[in-house]
Amino acid sequence: MIKELLHETESRMKATITVLEQELYGMRTGRASTALVEKLEVEYYGTMTPLLQLAGISVPEPQTIMIRPYDRSTVGLIERAILASDLGLTPNSDGTNIRLNIPALTQERRRDLVKMMHKRLEDSKVAVRNVRRGAMEDLKEFEKEHMISEDEMHDGQDRVQKLTDKFIAEIDEIGKRKEHEIMEV
Fold it and tell me: For residue 144, how many other CB atoms are within 10 A of its CB?
């Protein structure tokens, strides 16, 4: 029973790390990356649709993202979505393709990105702690219903805390790597 709870707790914490890594992968570092725009939501026939489903996205040059809409009528919709996003990029369109030129990051913009990244890191730590709290409550409930002994409950709580510490340390390590990547000129 405790083993199952620990396994579920660990998989939920891993999922938090996966989401964090996906969010940070899309964060600008001064180099063009398709991840910057892949998940950008575009209103297409009244439905919010990820850009990846509406267009082919490539990086023909280190500072350029090329978007080739599958349907030419979506060019304007995609441009509007890019302008409305917090990317801070201006789309250049020739009627069939959209180019996004990625400007070099200023030191001030790099610091802003690091602040945004730290907020996402903190959100992830809170999510891991929420998973821990749920697991601790489950252990107390198991003990209260005499499904496990008090010693087993305390042992389970120690193991949940160790898992939490491990994942918090992993979040910190991911943050250090990303901060280095952002601040690298």
Answer: 10
Name the residue ranges covered by the structural domains of the chain.
2-25+106-183, 34-101
48 beta partners: 43
Q: Evaluate whether 105 touches 113 at the Cβ level (below 8 Å).
A: yes
The encoded tokens of residue 163 equal 């898992």
CATH fold of 2-25+106-183 reads Topoisomerase I; Chain A, domain 4 (1.10.132)
pTM of the model: 0.69
The span from the CA of 85 to the CA of 134, in Å, is 35
| 27/177 Cα distance (integer angstroms) | 13
Residue 77 CB contacts under 8 Å (≥ 6 apart), including other chains: 42, 43, 44
Summarised one tens digit per residue, pLDDT across range 20-73 is 888 887 676 666 777 778 878 888 888 888 888 888 988 888 788 899 999 888
